[in-house]
Design brief:
2 copies of one chain form a homodimer. Chain A is α+β, with helices and mostly antiparallel strands. The first copy, chain A, contains 21 helices and 10 strands. Chain A has helices spanning 3-9, 34-51, 55-58, 63-75, 94-103, 109-121, 124-129, 132-144, 259-277, 279-295, 307-343, 348-358, 360-385, 396-404, 413-429, 436-447, 462-486, 494-524, 530-558, 561-574, 583-597; strands spanning 149-152, 168-171, 177-188, 195-202, 209-214, 221-223, 237-248, 252-253, 297-298, 301-302. In chain A, strand 9 (297-298) and strand 10 (301-302) form a beta hairpin. In chain A, helix 9 (259-277) runs parallel beside helix 13 (360-385). Chain A is globular, with a radius of gyration of 24 Å. Chains A and B meet through strand 9, helix 11, helix 14, helix 15 and helix 18 of A and strand 9, helix 11, helix 14, helix 15 and helix 18 of B. Bound molecules: flavin-adenine dinucleotide (2 copies). One flavin-adenine dinucleotide sits between chains B (117, 151-154, 159-160, 186-188, 229, 237, 405, 408-409, 411-412, 414-415, 494) and A (296, 298-299, 303, 306, 308-309, 383-384, 386-388, 390).
Chain lengths: 604, 604
């Protein structure tokens, strides 16, 4: 196929906002092929047998056990999914990578953090930026779990401001090695890793530089104590001190001063994978919760029959479903974009790098949305268990604690929210996504007289699609005016940015959910997708609510007088339902099905 | 003063919804008298010295240390505030009781639970329902901390459905004692208490009966292991097993079959005190967070300068301020109602009972609102600390874990939400609160043509007061229609009830906040209350948003066609701002002040 056709078919990163996507063009969990399904099954089996069966050990700060499980995962090939075959990996596509990340993460955040840190930020900088020699030397070991990797970016004084680290790399007189000195903090897998990806500054460079550093205590590397943490109790997290650690010059990653870019690109992949890694935890918690609710009797009836509980179970289910929809949609986009690049003659490495970079906006969106969903789901999980939810003997409280980290690492959710909008605006400036045209059109529409025709909403999702198209206009209206008003100073108007980010996130999540369901309903008929249709409607209803709230908040804060009134009117027009759904009925329908199945069953 | 005047001056429970309260008629933290201020100071001193200085010990499951602190609290008189002087207590008013509950609870949930369980549900059933002999015998010991109390209501099969317990009390042949057998669960203070309030069933009574049971292992009483819990790590929580435990007949509380009532009334007081007990934790977390945000530098600036952080600090501050406003307003109502009853000739015991019962709706409202605020506040506290928030070496994560219990015990928040509306509807049925009249008026207004006059909103809070009056109409519209539609079946429409409850809660919280600020602004001038005015406006803005959301959710779920349209129009009309506040500017103003003070300073 010609690269031109390929290019036309898939949206570029951020374009979802201004282009309409056909449901046929999104990938869904229901589209998994046989190989992917088998991969998923074996991942689930592994988790049940090796991880879930021992969840209590993970709560006891049994770091050695995490390492043991990682080693087993390596033996079974789970660490090598994403690694190119040339370096001993399976070289599977991005969807498969996400699948494993997703289903391997449901039992405990301890293992999933170890897994994510190793296969993601611990390995990727080498596969994405390494020289042939570096890849030959290190990647096969990392792919099999013979070696484990860790990623040393954060320092006591450099967290969100990752490029501000003080760790130094000094070239030796003979130019053969760099001597690295500095203090890294919060390093996952530090306790058992063989290799560190270390970011350090050479002289007074503006940007940091990446290095591959083998772990060797005799080479000036020492570790702090294990951090005492709220959750992920068996994930090793330590400070790492480098004291004149000698690193051969050939272990520099990419070029001098390229470290910040490496760090950010590794984090991009890390973010979407982290989102996936929050899905199975939600499925498990939802399933455990509904099981409990079916069994627990109060007032002579299983509590699952109470509307209060149904609302929770419906919400929990919808959150997973929406998260799945958006994660796998984006994953396939990335996979396709890589394929296009390869077809265009890029090396696989280059292609992967660019493919992921392309969807950095979606990666940030997913990281925020799904990490917050898993928090809410586990929170409701506790509540459904009542007093038992507060007990460490039931699996709810540790899921809640483990979930808390996902909103902090791989870039805090504040940072990722601002990145999502910031990157979009930059793409627009660069002409990669045309926001100006659509934003101008919205501006004109706002001045004009609204149509009073009653649209024909008889087809499935006709009104919902229309609404999503209008939500996009809300974003364009809000973000467009903010850009106009604040210009380059926009970044300092964080609360407006954050509100815009919330709108953007809801659009992507709701649209992905709708497209997935529409695709499946076209294939299988609406009856077969009755519950998914309900979930889609309910997700969108809540999304519209949030867009109203956030849109209003932004508008009343940066616009005044007539402009404010016009925008508030626009907001109303763009968020108006002709036929609002019966929210309670939708919730009950969803919850009743989940209760009847006694588990979450919508993951294709 | 005549009891008639007294009666007229203060609102009855639930009447806030249909009557306008003058700001002069609410009590605020700024109204504390000298004695109360001194009490507060000594409470704070005690906490700093004995509790906060050792917060790490509380995380180490040091149950003995909690007991030691309780004993010290007893020696210093903190356990006897609410206890009548006749029984060795200080006999202070309800406001003072709340004050101590509030300020003693900020350091750790472990101590605050022990304190609450002992002074509240562990002692109150005796002071409220005990015979003179029972009071003489037990209360002085409890007031000094010579003895500690615990409250045994919950059983493995009876949690929310508290009246369904299986514990039996069998009268002996000689009618001298009851023999109690059963299993109680989740009993706070079980590990070190000397006395249990036990609820058990006599024969096949419909309702349970209360007993005072002295702790004596030789009398068939044994304890389970300490529960492993998510939070409040040094609060003793155990199962308590009674095996033919002999209890003299004179230890029955009140009458046979009166236990459920006792349990509920003890919980009423427990709920409002629990709300108070969540306030100082919020103040402390807010203060710790702003201190950190002032110190932590990223991107070359203290993070407190970022809009994202300002929004959090503003929200945290507003939540405490609103919680204080509502808690102390209700506390004084209760204190006054007790005074009226005493003036009318009731015994102090009777008066207190009725006084608290009167405001059961407000107690449920406060329990829900403040327990959720403390969760949100601690959650943002973690987020402001970034990675450090996840560390057990900083005080955020334990505050978050400790906060989680408040939404579960003393009646889950679901139960309390439904109670709040349910009790209100019952009061209306009994004619204690006239809802029908106002609801009918709203119905008529909805049919009529809205006025297009532009109201004069120039006075302080003129628009805000108007809005609150309209929010009340939203509640009447939603709840009124629901009652009409579902009649006695309303209880099974929980999601509508829950939405109504949220509206009710926001009304009470927002109104209380406004009245407090208005009162203080009248006394001190608006300039002196600039920040509080901002907090009030912002709280109300958010409240209106939630009312819109919840109102809409209810309306689209139980009304259809024209009725739905009319109600949605009504909702719009009743929630409309003529001059919406600049949300971002308000937040920044509040956050800047808190940042400049480097702590929360609005507690009068
Ligand atoms: C358990 C755990 C494991 C980790 N694993 C690793 C690892 O393996 N490797 C690694 O390198 N790092 C790791 N980290 C570090 C993690 O990535 C950082 O904690 C995270 O990036 C936040 O940085 P910080 O903790 O310094 O918070 P800060 O950057 O100090 O942030 C504090 C608060 O300020 C906000 N903030 C900061 N800057 C801005 C801004 N410009 N605008 C608005 N708000 C802002 C943040 O959102 C946050 O709310 C880990 C952390 C933890 C807790
Ligand atoms: C740390 C701790 C300390 C405690 N201390 C004490 C104590 O000192 N003394 C004591 O007697 N008890 C104590 N309790 C028990 C506590 O009061 C109960 O846990 C609480 O009332 C909830 O009951 P449950 O745990 O059985 O949950 P359940 O009643 O089983 O509730 C489970 C879920 O169902 C919901 N639900 C239940 N009924 C309904 C309904 N009708 N409609 C809608 N939803 C419903 C609940 O809201 C909850 O979400 C303590 C509990 C804990 C965890």
């Amino acid at each position: 196929m010609s690269t031109e056709t390929l290019k036309k078919d898939i949206l570029r990163g951020g374009q979802f906002l201004v282009k309409e996507t056909q449901c046929e063009d999104v990938f869904t969990l229901e589209d998994l092929n046989e190989e992917q399904r088998m991969m998923r099954e074996s991942t689930k089996e592994f988790v049940e047998r090796e991880i879930w069966a021992h969840w209590e050990r993970f709560e006891k700060k049994d770091y050695a056990f995490t390492e043991e499980c990682m080693r087993k995962a390596g033996e079974l090939g789970f660490l090598s999914i994403a690694v190119p075959e040339a370096y001993g990996g399976m070289g599977m596509g991005f969807v498969s990578t996400m699948l494993v990340c997703d289903y391997i993460s449901g039992a405990t955040g301890s293992f999933s953090t170890a897994f994510g840190a190793h296969t993601g930020i611990g390995t990727l900088p080498i596969t994405l930026y390494g020289t042939e020699e570096q890849k030959q030397k290190y990647v096969p070991k990392l792919a099999t779990g013979e070696w484990f990797g860790a990623y040393c970016l954060t320092e006591p004084g450099a967290g969100s401001d990752a490029n501000s680290g003080k760790t130094k790399a000094v070239l030796s007189a003979d130019k053969k090695y760099y001597s690295i000195t500095g203090q890294k903090m919060w390093i996952s897998n530090a306790g058992f890793c063989n290799l560190f990806i270390v970011f350090a500054r050479i002289e007074d460079d503006k940007n940091i530089t990446g290095f591959i550093v083998e772990n060797d205590p005799k080479n000036g590397i020492s570790l702090g104590e294990e951090e005492k943490k709220l959750g992920i109790h068996s994930s090793s997290t330590r400070q790492v001190f480098f004291n004149e650690t000698k690193v051969p010059v050939e272990n520099m990653l990419s070029e001098r001063g390229n470290g910040f870019k490496i760090a950010m690109n590794a984090l991009n992949v890390g973010r979407i994978k982290l989102a996936a890694a929050c899905l199975e935890a939600q499925r498990r918690v939802t399933t455990e919760a509904v099981k409990y609710a079916n069994e627990r009797i109060q007032f002579k009836t299983p509590i699952v029959n109470f509307g209060a509980i149904k609302a929770k179970i419906a919400q929990m289910s919808i959150n997973v479903y929406a998260g799945e929809s958006a994660c796998y949609r984006a994953a396939k986009n990335i996979e396709d974009r890589i394929a296009i690049r390869v077809a265009e003659g890029n090396s696989h490495q280059e292609a992967e790098l660019k493919g992921v970079e392309e969807y950095a906006i979606e990666c940030s969106i997913l990281k925020v949305a799904v990490s917050e969903d898993v928090q809410n789901t586990t929170d409701e999980g506790i509540q459904i268990f009542g007093g038992m939810g507060f007990s460490a003997d039931t699996p709810m409280e540790k899921a809640w604690r483990d979930a808390r980290i996902a909103r902090i690492y791989e870039g805090t959710n504040e940072i990722n929210r601002m990145l999502a909008v910031g990157m979009l605006v930059k793409k627009a400036m660069k002409g990669h996504v045309d926001l100006l045209g659509p934003a101008t059109a919205v501006g004109e529409e706002l001045m004009g007289i609204p149509s009073f025709e009653t649209p024909d909403f008889s087809e499935l999702f006709a009104e919902e699609k229309d609404l999503i198209a209008r939500l996009k206009k809300v974003f364009l209206m809000v973000a467009g005016s903010a850009v106009q008003k604040f210009g380059p100073d926009l970044e300092s108007h964080q609360q407006v940015l954050l509100a815009a980010a919330d709108i953007l996130i809801e659009i992507y999540m709701a649209e992905s959910t709708l497209l997935r369901t529409e695709k499946n309903a076209k294939r299988e008929g609406e009856a077969a997708q009755e519950i998914q249709i309900a979930m889609t409607r309910l997700y969108l209803y809540e999304a519209v609510d949030l867009v109203i709230k956030k849109g209003k908040e932004a508008i009343v804060s940066f616009a005044e007088g007539d402009e404010q009134r016009m925008m508030l009117m626009g907001l109303k027009r763009y968020t108006k339902y002709t036929n609002p759904p019966n929210v309670v009925a939708l919730r009950n329908k969803i919850a009743d099905k989940v209760a009847a199945d006694n588990r979450y069953t919508f993951d294709g």
